[in-house]
Design goal:
35% strand, alpha+beta, 2 helices, three-stranded antiparallel β-sheet, 3 strands
């Protein structure tokens, strides 16, 4: 997921499993890349989706349906 401030990357790890990264972006340039635990990555994703939903009624409704609310 790409936002103006972060890029959240989830991929297959080197030895199988899941690799999660959070990239910090400033003015369109990635200034840092941090490996993250999947739990932390999911928390960051939830935060970004919540922020999006608070700004956009259609996104809020879609997120509510996705989460069963």
């Amino acid at each position: 997921m790409t936002t103006p401030d972060r890029v959240l990357v989830l991929s297959t790890g080197k030895h199988g499993g899941v690799a999660a990264e959070i990239h910090q972006v400033v003015r369109g340039v990635v200034i840092s890349r941090k490996e993250a635990a999947v739990d932390d990555w999911l928390a960051a994703l939830a935060q970004e989706l919540t922020t999006l939903a608070s700004k956009d009624a259609k996104a809020r409704d879609a997120l509510s349906r996705l989460l069963g609310g």
